[in-house]
Design brief:
382 residues; 20 strands; six-stranded mixed β-sheet; five-stranded antiparallel β-sheet; 8 helices; alpha+beta
Protein backbone atom coordinates (compact mmCIF):
# COMPACT_ATOMS: atom_id res chain seq x y z
CA UNK A 1 0.00 0.00 0.00
CA UNK A 2 1.09 3.60 -0.50
CA UNK A 3 0.68 7.04 0.93
CA UNK A 4 0.19 9.65 -1.80
CA UNK A 5 1.94 13.01 -1.55
CA UNK A 6 1.10 15.78 -4.01
CA UNK A 7 3.13 18.99 -3.88
CA UNK A 8 2.37 22.16 -5.85
CA UNK A 9 0.50 20.34 -8.63
CA UNK A 10 -0.26 22.39 -11.75
CA UNK A 11 -2.46 21.36 -14.67
CA UNK A 12 -3.02 23.42 -17.79
CA UNK A 13 -4.94 22.90 -21.00
CA UNK A 14 -3.38 25.38 -23.38
CA UNK A 15 -3.71 28.80 -21.76
CA UNK A 16 -6.33 27.62 -19.26
CA UNK A 17 -5.05 26.67 -15.81
CA UNK A 18 -7.34 24.02 -14.31
CA UNK A 19 -5.30 23.34 -11.16
CA UNK A 20 -3.09 26.31 -10.19
CA UNK A 21 -1.12 25.03 -7.16
CA UNK A 22 -2.45 22.08 -5.18
CA UNK A 23 -0.77 20.22 -2.33
CA UNK A 24 -2.21 17.39 -0.22
CA UNK A 25 -1.11 14.14 1.45
CA UNK A 26 -3.32 11.04 1.42
CA UNK A 27 -2.54 8.55 4.15
CA UNK A 28 -1.66 4.88 3.66
CA UNK A 29 -4.92 2.89 3.75
CA UNK A 30 -7.12 6.01 3.76
CA UNK A 31 -10.37 6.39 1.82
CA UNK A 32 -9.94 9.94 0.55
CA UNK A 33 -12.66 11.67 -1.46
CA UNK A 34 -12.32 14.53 -3.93
CA UNK A 35 -15.66 16.34 -3.83
CA UNK A 36 -16.87 19.33 -5.77
CA UNK A 37 -19.11 20.64 -8.55
CA UNK A 38 -18.62 19.75 -12.21
CA UNK A 39 -15.49 21.33 -13.63
CA UNK A 40 -13.75 21.83 -10.27
CA UNK A 41 -10.72 19.70 -11.24
CA UNK A 42 -11.38 16.58 -9.17
CA UNK A 43 -11.34 14.09 -12.08
CA UNK A 44 -8.40 15.94 -13.62
CA UNK A 45 -6.43 15.44 -10.41
CA UNK A 46 -7.40 11.76 -10.27
CA UNK A 47 -6.19 11.27 -13.84
CA UNK A 48 -2.90 13.00 -12.98
CA UNK A 49 -2.43 10.46 -10.16
CA UNK A 50 -3.26 7.65 -12.59
CA UNK A 51 -0.86 8.92 -15.27
CA UNK A 52 -3.61 9.57 -17.82
CA UNK A 53 -3.06 13.36 -17.75
CA UNK A 54 0.22 15.22 -18.11
CA UNK A 55 1.59 17.18 -15.15
CA UNK A 56 2.68 20.76 -15.86
CA UNK A 57 4.14 21.40 -12.42
CA UNK A 58 4.74 19.90 -8.99
CA UNK A 59 5.52 16.37 -7.81
CA UNK A 60 3.40 13.26 -7.25
CA UNK A 61 4.75 10.54 -4.96
CA UNK A 62 3.66 7.06 -3.89
CA UNK A 63 5.49 6.70 -0.59
CA UNK A 64 9.01 7.98 -1.46
CA UNK A 65 8.79 7.21 -5.20
CA UNK A 66 8.17 10.13 -7.59
CA UNK A 67 5.71 8.94 -10.26
CA UNK A 68 5.45 12.05 -12.50
CA UNK A 69 7.01 10.38 -15.53
CA UNK A 70 6.16 6.76 -14.69
CA UNK A 71 4.09 4.74 -17.15
CA UNK A 72 0.49 4.28 -15.86
CA UNK A 73 0.85 0.50 -16.05
CA UNK A 74 3.82 0.58 -13.68
CA UNK A 75 2.27 2.77 -10.98
CA UNK A 76 0.52 -0.08 -9.19
CA UNK A 77 -2.97 1.35 -9.46
CA UNK A 78 -6.43 -0.18 -9.84
CA UNK A 79 -9.18 1.81 -11.53
CA UNK A 80 -12.97 1.68 -11.20
CA UNK A 81 -14.84 3.86 -13.69
CA UNK A 82 -18.30 5.37 -13.92
CA UNK A 83 -19.30 3.12 -16.82
CA UNK A 84 -17.93 -0.14 -15.29
CA UNK A 85 -15.68 -0.76 -18.36
CA UNK A 86 -16.04 -4.52 -18.09
CA UNK A 87 -15.70 -6.67 -21.21
CA UNK A 88 -19.12 -7.77 -22.54
CA UNK A 89 -17.68 -10.74 -24.45
CA UNK A 90 -16.09 -12.33 -21.35
CA UNK A 91 -17.68 -14.12 -18.42
CA UNK A 92 -17.59 -12.51 -15.00
CA UNK A 93 -14.71 -14.78 -14.00
CA UNK A 94 -12.71 -13.97 -17.14
CA UNK A 95 -13.22 -10.26 -16.55
CA UNK A 96 -11.74 -10.52 -13.07
CA UNK A 97 -8.86 -12.75 -14.23
CA UNK A 98 -7.97 -10.37 -17.07
CA UNK A 99 -5.55 -8.18 -15.11
CA UNK A 100 -3.68 -11.20 -13.78
CA UNK A 101 -2.65 -12.33 -17.27
CA UNK A 102 0.13 -9.74 -17.25
CA UNK A 103 1.60 -11.16 -14.03
CA UNK A 104 2.62 -14.46 -15.64
CA UNK A 105 0.51 -16.29 -13.07
CA UNK A 106 -0.39 -19.97 -13.48
CA UNK A 107 -4.01 -20.55 -14.54
CA UNK A 108 -4.99 -22.37 -11.36
CA UNK A 109 -3.61 -19.54 -9.22
CA UNK A 110 -5.43 -16.97 -11.39
CA UNK A 111 -8.66 -18.86 -10.82
CA UNK A 112 -8.05 -18.98 -7.06
CA UNK A 113 -7.28 -15.27 -6.85
CA UNK A 114 -10.31 -14.34 -8.95
CA UNK A 115 -12.55 -16.57 -6.86
CA UNK A 116 -11.34 -14.88 -3.67
CA UNK A 117 -12.26 -11.39 -4.86
CA UNK A 118 -15.53 -12.49 -6.46
CA UNK A 119 -16.53 -13.83 -3.05
CA UNK A 120 -15.33 -10.65 -1.37
CA UNK A 121 -17.72 -8.54 -3.47
CA UNK A 122 -20.49 -11.21 -3.32
CA UNK A 123 -20.81 -12.02 -7.01
CA UNK A 124 -19.12 -15.44 -7.00
CA UNK A 125 -22.46 -17.09 -7.84
CA UNK A 126 -22.40 -15.26 -11.20
CA UNK A 127 -18.81 -16.26 -12.10
CA UNK A 128 -19.74 -18.13 -15.26
CA UNK A 129 -22.40 -15.72 -16.49
CA UNK A 130 -21.99 -12.98 -19.08
CA UNK A 131 -22.05 -9.37 -17.76
CA UNK A 132 -25.21 -8.47 -19.71
CA UNK A 133 -27.23 -10.71 -17.38
CA UNK A 134 -26.13 -8.76 -14.29
CA UNK A 135 -27.70 -5.65 -12.79
CA UNK A 136 -25.81 -2.36 -12.72
CA UNK A 137 -24.84 -2.88 -9.09
CA UNK A 138 -23.58 -6.40 -9.79
CA UNK A 139 -21.55 -5.17 -12.76
CA UNK A 140 -19.96 -2.50 -10.60
CA UNK A 141 -19.04 -5.18 -8.05
CA UNK A 142 -17.33 -7.11 -10.85
CA UNK A 143 -15.42 -3.97 -11.84
CA UNK A 144 -14.35 -3.53 -8.21
CA UNK A 145 -13.19 -7.16 -7.98
CA UNK A 146 -11.20 -6.77 -11.22
CA UNK A 147 -9.47 -3.65 -9.86
CA UNK A 148 -8.61 -5.30 -6.55
CA UNK A 149 -7.49 -8.71 -7.81
CA UNK A 150 -4.18 -7.31 -9.08
CA UNK A 151 -3.54 -6.13 -5.49
CA UNK A 152 -2.62 -2.55 -6.43
CA UNK A 153 -0.95 -0.09 -4.09
CA UNK A 154 -3.63 2.53 -4.83
CA UNK A 155 -7.28 2.24 -5.89
CA UNK A 156 -8.75 5.11 -7.93
CA UNK A 157 -12.54 5.42 -8.31
CA UNK A 158 -14.07 7.98 -10.66
CA UNK A 159 -17.80 8.59 -10.01
CA UNK A 160 -18.32 4.81 -9.68
CA UNK A 161 -21.96 5.00 -8.55
CA UNK A 162 -23.38 7.79 -10.69
CA UNK A 163 -25.03 5.40 -13.18
CA UNK A 164 -26.92 3.48 -10.48
CA UNK A 165 -30.39 4.21 -9.12
CA UNK A 166 -30.75 5.75 -5.65
CA UNK A 167 -31.29 2.50 -3.76
CA UNK A 168 -28.33 0.78 -5.43
CA UNK A 169 -26.08 3.78 -4.76
CA UNK A 170 -26.77 3.49 -1.04
CA UNK A 171 -26.14 -0.26 -1.14
CA UNK A 172 -22.93 0.03 -3.16
CA UNK A 173 -21.37 2.79 -1.09
CA UNK A 174 -21.67 0.50 1.94
CA UNK A 175 -20.07 -2.32 -0.07
CA UNK A 176 -17.19 -0.09 -1.18
CA UNK A 177 -16.55 1.24 2.33
CA UNK A 178 -16.58 -2.22 3.91
CA UNK A 179 -14.33 -3.78 1.26
CA UNK A 180 -11.89 -0.87 1.34
CA UNK A 181 -11.52 -1.25 5.11
CA UNK A 182 -11.20 -5.05 4.78
CA UNK A 183 -8.47 -4.83 2.13
CA UNK A 184 -6.84 -1.73 3.66
CA UNK A 185 -5.98 -0.18 0.30
CA UNK A 186 -5.29 3.53 -0.16
CA UNK A 187 -8.29 4.80 -2.14
CA UNK A 188 -8.93 8.09 -3.93
CA UNK A 189 -12.62 8.48 -4.71
CA UNK A 190 -14.17 11.15 -6.94
CA UNK A 191 -17.80 12.23 -6.60
CA UNK A 192 -20.06 15.27 -6.82
CA UNK A 193 -22.56 13.69 -4.40
CA UNK A 194 -22.15 15.21 -0.92
CA UNK A 195 -24.13 12.50 0.87
CA UNK A 196 -22.08 9.79 -0.80
CA UNK A 197 -18.84 11.49 0.22
CA UNK A 198 -20.02 11.96 3.80
CA UNK A 199 -21.05 8.30 4.06
CA UNK A 200 -17.86 6.61 2.92
CA UNK A 201 -14.89 8.92 3.49
CA UNK A 202 -12.16 9.07 6.08
CA UNK A 203 -11.41 12.56 4.80
CA UNK A 204 -12.92 14.79 2.12
CA UNK A 205 -11.24 17.49 0.05
CA UNK A 206 -13.86 20.00 -1.11
CA UNK A 207 -12.68 21.55 -4.38
CA UNK A 208 -13.63 24.57 -6.45
CA UNK A 209 -11.79 25.82 -9.55
CA UNK A 210 -8.80 23.56 -8.90
CA UNK A 211 -8.34 24.68 -5.29
CA UNK A 212 -9.00 22.66 -2.13
CA UNK A 213 -11.16 24.90 0.06
CA UNK A 214 -11.44 22.51 3.00
CA UNK A 215 -9.87 19.13 3.69
CA UNK A 216 -10.92 17.17 6.75
CA UNK A 217 -13.15 14.57 8.32
CA UNK A 218 -16.80 14.64 7.20
CA UNK A 219 -18.10 15.73 10.62
CA UNK A 220 -15.79 18.73 10.83
CA UNK A 221 -16.45 19.84 7.25
CA UNK A 222 -20.20 19.75 7.91
CA UNK A 223 -20.15 21.34 11.36
CA UNK A 224 -17.30 23.85 10.92
CA UNK A 225 -16.81 24.61 7.19
CA UNK A 226 -13.73 26.63 6.36
CA UNK A 227 -15.57 29.13 4.15
CA UNK A 228 -19.00 30.03 2.82
CA UNK A 229 -18.57 27.95 -0.36
CA UNK A 230 -18.03 24.79 1.68
CA UNK A 231 -20.95 25.65 3.98
CA UNK A 232 -23.34 26.02 1.05
CA UNK A 233 -21.99 23.07 -0.96
CA UNK A 234 -22.08 20.51 1.85
CA UNK A 235 -25.69 19.87 2.84
CA UNK A 236 -28.41 22.51 3.09
CA UNK A 237 -27.98 25.85 4.79
CA UNK A 238 -29.66 29.23 5.20
CA UNK A 239 -27.41 32.22 4.51
CA UNK A 240 -28.38 35.32 6.51
CA UNK A 241 -26.92 38.67 7.56
CA UNK A 242 -26.05 39.66 11.10
CA UNK A 243 -23.53 41.51 13.22
CA UNK A 244 -21.20 40.79 16.10
CA UNK A 245 -21.49 43.09 19.11
CA UNK A 246 -19.35 43.04 22.23
CA UNK A 247 -21.11 44.25 25.36
CA UNK A 248 -19.94 44.00 28.98
CA UNK A 249 -17.30 41.47 28.00
CA UNK A 250 -19.76 39.19 26.18
CA UNK A 251 -19.81 38.69 22.41
CA UNK A 252 -23.29 38.60 20.86
CA UNK A 253 -24.63 37.78 17.42
CA UNK A 254 -27.31 40.33 16.61
CA UNK A 255 -29.92 40.23 13.85
CA UNK A 256 -31.41 43.31 12.13
CA UNK A 257 -34.59 43.11 14.28
CA UNK A 258 -32.56 43.22 17.50
CA UNK A 259 -32.74 39.49 18.35
CA UNK A 260 -29.39 38.41 19.77
CA UNK A 261 -27.62 35.34 21.06
CA UNK A 262 -24.27 35.04 22.89
CA UNK A 263 -21.51 33.56 20.70
CA UNK A 264 -18.86 31.37 22.32
CA UNK A 265 -16.93 29.87 19.42
CA UNK A 266 -15.65 32.87 17.47
CA UNK A 267 -11.85 33.07 17.29
CA UNK A 268 -10.57 35.74 19.66
CA UNK A 269 -8.73 37.53 16.85
CA UNK A 270 -12.07 37.96 15.03
CA UNK A 271 -14.26 38.74 18.09
CA UNK A 272 -15.04 42.42 17.56
CA UNK A 273 -17.93 44.63 16.42
CA UNK A 274 -18.45 43.80 12.75
CA UNK A 275 -20.96 42.69 10.13
CA UNK A 276 -20.98 38.94 9.40
CA UNK A 277 -22.54 36.35 7.12
CA UNK A 278 -24.32 33.50 8.90
CA UNK A 279 -24.74 29.91 7.82
CA UNK A 280 -27.66 28.37 9.73
CA UNK A 281 -28.54 24.81 8.77
CA UNK A 282 -32.28 24.00 8.67
CA UNK A 283 -32.04 21.75 11.74
CA UNK A 284 -30.36 24.58 13.71
CA UNK A 285 -33.54 26.70 13.66
CA UNK A 286 -36.16 26.20 16.36
CA UNK A 287 -39.72 27.14 15.41
CA UNK A 288 -42.56 28.07 17.76
CA UNK A 289 -45.99 29.54 17.06
CA UNK A 290 -46.34 33.25 17.75
CA UNK A 291 -48.49 34.10 20.76
CA UNK A 292 -49.97 37.62 20.76
CA UNK A 293 -50.21 37.47 24.56
CA UNK A 294 -46.43 37.08 24.83
CA UNK A 295 -43.66 39.37 23.54
CA UNK A 296 -42.16 37.92 20.36
CA UNK A 297 -38.53 36.87 20.67
CA UNK A 298 -36.26 35.60 17.93
CA UNK A 299 -36.83 36.10 14.22
CA UNK A 300 -40.37 36.84 13.10
CA UNK A 301 -41.49 34.70 10.16
CA UNK A 302 -44.53 33.41 8.30
CA UNK A 303 -44.78 29.78 7.18
CA UNK A 304 -45.12 29.60 3.38
CA UNK A 305 -45.17 25.84 2.83
CA UNK A 306 -44.31 22.50 4.42
CA UNK A 307 -43.22 19.06 3.22
CA UNK A 308 -43.85 16.00 5.39
CA UNK A 309 -41.01 13.45 5.00
CA UNK A 310 -41.84 10.91 7.68
CA UNK A 311 -39.62 11.45 10.70
CA UNK A 312 -39.00 15.09 9.73
CA UNK A 313 -41.09 17.94 8.37
CA UNK A 314 -39.47 20.63 6.24
CA UNK A 315 -40.93 24.12 6.59
CA UNK A 316 -40.29 27.07 4.30
CA UNK A 317 -40.77 30.48 5.91
CA UNK A 318 -40.37 34.14 4.99
CA UNK A 319 -38.63 36.39 7.50
CA UNK A 320 -39.78 39.96 8.10
CA UNK A 321 -36.68 41.06 6.14
CA UNK A 322 -38.04 39.24 3.07
CA UNK A 323 -35.41 36.48 3.31
CA UNK A 324 -36.60 32.88 2.90
CA UNK A 325 -35.41 30.11 5.19
CA UNK A 326 -35.84 26.34 5.39
CA UNK A 327 -36.48 24.70 8.76
CA UNK A 328 -36.28 20.98 9.53
CA UNK A 329 -38.18 19.82 12.60
CA UNK A 330 -39.04 16.42 13.99
CA UNK A 331 -42.55 15.56 12.81
CA UNK A 332 -45.29 15.89 15.38
CA UNK A 333 -47.86 13.11 15.67
CA UNK A 334 -50.94 15.31 15.57
CA UNK A 335 -50.16 18.45 13.60
CA UNK A 336 -48.20 20.28 10.93
CA UNK A 337 -47.93 24.07 11.11
CA UNK A 338 -50.21 25.35 8.31
CA UNK A 339 -49.18 27.94 5.70
CA UNK A 340 -49.82 31.51 6.79
CA UNK A 341 -48.98 30.83 10.45
CA UNK A 342 -46.90 33.45 12.23
CA UNK A 343 -43.93 31.89 14.01
CA UNK A 344 -40.85 32.82 15.99
CA UNK A 345 -37.50 31.34 15.02
CA UNK A 346 -34.56 31.02 17.38
CA UNK A 347 -31.15 29.55 16.58
CA UNK A 348 -28.89 26.97 18.17
CA UNK A 349 -26.06 29.45 18.54
CA UNK A 350 -23.39 26.87 19.37
CA UNK A 351 -23.88 25.16 16.00
CA UNK A 352 -24.12 28.02 13.51
CA UNK A 353 -21.16 29.37 11.51
CA UNK A 354 -20.07 32.95 10.88
CA UNK A 355 -18.04 34.22 7.94
CA UNK A 356 -16.21 37.41 7.04
CA UNK A 357 -18.29 39.56 4.68
CA UNK A 358 -15.31 40.29 2.40
CA UNK A 359 -13.30 37.06 2.28
CA UNK A 360 -16.16 34.66 3.16
CA UNK A 361 -13.66 32.78 5.38
CA UNK A 362 -14.80 31.22 8.65
CA UNK A 363 -14.49 33.21 11.88
CA UNK A 364 -15.01 30.14 14.04
CA UNK A 365 -12.77 28.08 16.30
CA UNK A 366 -12.72 24.29 15.73
CA UNK A 367 -12.20 24.53 11.96
CA UNK A 368 -9.67 21.88 10.92
CA UNK A 369 -8.12 22.16 7.47
CA UNK A 370 -5.98 19.08 7.31
CA UNK A 371 -3.99 18.83 4.07
CA UNK A 372 -1.07 16.93 5.59
CA UNK A 373 -2.72 13.59 6.33
CA UNK A 374 -4.94 11.95 8.92
CA UNK A 375 -2.47 12.12 11.81
CA UNK A 376 -1.51 15.81 11.57
CA UNK A 377 -4.56 17.94 12.26
CA UNK A 378 -4.32 21.67 12.36
CA UNK A 379 -6.78 24.46 13.07
CA UNK A 380 -7.31 26.69 10.09
CA UNK A 381 -5.94 30.20 10.38
CA UNK A 382 -7.18 33.10 8.34
Amino acid sequence: MSAITIRNAVKRYGTVTVIPDLSVTIGDGELFTLLGPSGCGKTTLLRMIAGFNTIEGGTFQFNDKIINDMDPGKRGIGMVFQNYAIFPNMTVRKNVEFGLKYKNMPKDQMRTEAEHFLKLVHVDQYADQMPERLSGGQQQRVALARALVIQPDVLLMDEPLSNLDAKLRVEMRTVIKNIQKHVGITTVYVTHDQEEAMAISDRIAVMKEGVIHHCGEPKNIYQRPADLFVATFIGKTNVLKGALKREDGTLYLEFPNGYREPMEYVRESEARDRDVILSVRPEELIVSLADDRQPRTGLKAVIQDSVFLGSNTHYFAELETGETVEIIQESEIDSIIPPGSRVNLTIKAQKINLFDTATEKSLMKQVENNLSGPSHRQEVSQ
